[in-house]
Every structure is written in structure tokens, then in C-alpha cells.
Predict the 3D structure of the following.
Amino acid sequence: MKNTKQKILVLDIVNNNRCHSNAEDIYNIARKTIPNISLGTVYRNLNSLVEEKHIKRIKMDDGIDRFDNMIYPHDHFICTKCNTIIDVDEVNHCDFKEISGNKVMSYEIYYKGICKNCLEEEK
Amino acid sequence: MKNTKQKILVLDIVNNNRCHSNAEDIYNIARKTIPNISLGTVYRNLNSLVEEKHIKRIKMDDGIDRFDNMIYPHDHFICTKCNTIIDVDEVNHCDFKEISGNKVMSYEIYYKGICKNCLEEEK
DNA sequence: CTCCTAACTAGTAATGATTACTAATTAAAG
DNA sequence: CTTTAATTAGTAATCATTACTAGTTAGGAG
């Protein structure tokens, strides 16, 4: 578990980015600080950080994973038209410990629909 | 919008399968009825059926999509150890129509943890 | 502060689920 | 029964992600 500058940078980018970037985006931002950082390194560190529960992976319908900070608990609204992700302050805190004998460690809510911007454009 | 026998078969397989199969599984089951059905045809029909909201796509961490019927409303528990998906009867029916100006059409809850079987094996 | 070594990285090649393509087939409307 | 646009089988291509390898480095022991 070495704390490399690459790993610290990746975590820092995810934590300071409010826009749910994908690996490629994070790679491009990271190159501004470490110009020869490798895309594979970004992927590997994103995977470690998800495993260590420092960041969250959001699986999108387009098949490209996005990554989000876990600084405060929140859910997500995903616009099915423009694919934007919008943070939703946790409204329903259901703290199940157990469902039918299965041990619940966490849960995620994904709201889907049309975002404010796309609704405007439809008019 | 043609109702081909391939599409009807794919829908039928998803609806009669309680185990959240992936495209490859569904392809293998489909071949028992239509031996020369193409894997591409299975993928295309799964995509159409998801778009038409006849079935649901479940995005897994291993990157392989699973498919589920929509006969009755339910959520999912995913075991992070063995990757099994377990149906959860809807416990929290929250019917938001709108969140911060964004129009909510649907929502999904994913519970994550360790399933009954894996808990047993840990002992 | 060195030395040591397991863990990590850069760069590149490989993987594999999914999609795209094309000639042939077919559902279904008139 | 025609007609035709949509669909299919079979195969090739795509591309996000992972694997691999020689070289580098974090950080603990001495």
C-alpha cells in the first residue's frame, strides 16, 4: 500500500472535481501535473481507490465508468437524454442492516429522468 | 417494430429466468430453440427491449451486463463476494416526481453486501 | 542517512464484451 | 400474393479496460 504521488494526484482530482469525470478525463487533468503519467496507472489507482472506498464508481449506460468523491453521502440523478449526473442530497436514509439473511453493507440510489437543462430545451 | 420470433424468444427467456442472466447465457438458452440465432441478434434485441422498458439492464462491477424481467417491481441486492444478484421486494416506495427541477421518471436501488451463502461459508 | 525489496510505474500489447457491417431473409401492410 | 423496410446470421471491427515487462520508487530496517 504505497502512497505514490500518482495515487495521491488521482484521489485529489476526483475529490476536487464536481463533474463525475471518467478515466480519460482524469488522465488528461493528471497530465498537467505529471506529464508522463500513464493511462494504465490512472485506471489502476482508480480501481484501488474504489476498493479502499475512498471514491465511488458510477456505471453508466454508455459503458464508460465515471468516478465520484465520497466526501459527503449523496445519491445521483442521471439524465437519460444528455447523460449528465447530478448530485442529490440524501433524502431517504434507510439503514437496513440485513435483508432476508443477506448482510447489507451499503446501498445506492439512482434516479433517472430528464434534467432541468434538457427540459428547458424541449420547450 | 417487427415482432420477430428472435425478439419474442429473447423476451421470453428473460421473463422466465429468475437468475439475472447475461447476454451470453441468454444466447446459449436461445440456441436450444433457434439453433442458428446470432449473438448479435441477442444483443440487439436485449437493447431494444431495455429501451422499450420491457426488461431491465443491470450494470455489474465486472463489466458484464445482466438482464432482468420487469414483471413486478423490485430492487436488487448484489453480493460483492460472489456477484450473485438477489431480488428484493420493494420496501421503500418513494415516488418523487421532481428533484431540484429535474424530472424523475424512475429510480433504482442497489443494496450491496455479503449474501446468505457467502456468510455461511465464512464460518 | 543508505540499503533493500516489494510495490508501483510508463509504455505498450492484448483482451473481450459489445457494436457495426452486409448480403440474405422476413414480418406485416396494402 | 406483392412489396419493402426492418430484421437477421455471420463475421469483422471497436474501444474501454486490463495485462505485461523492464525499470523505478516508497518507505521500513539497520
Q: What stands out?
A: The radius of gyration of chain A is 16 Å. The mean pLDDT of chain A is 93.
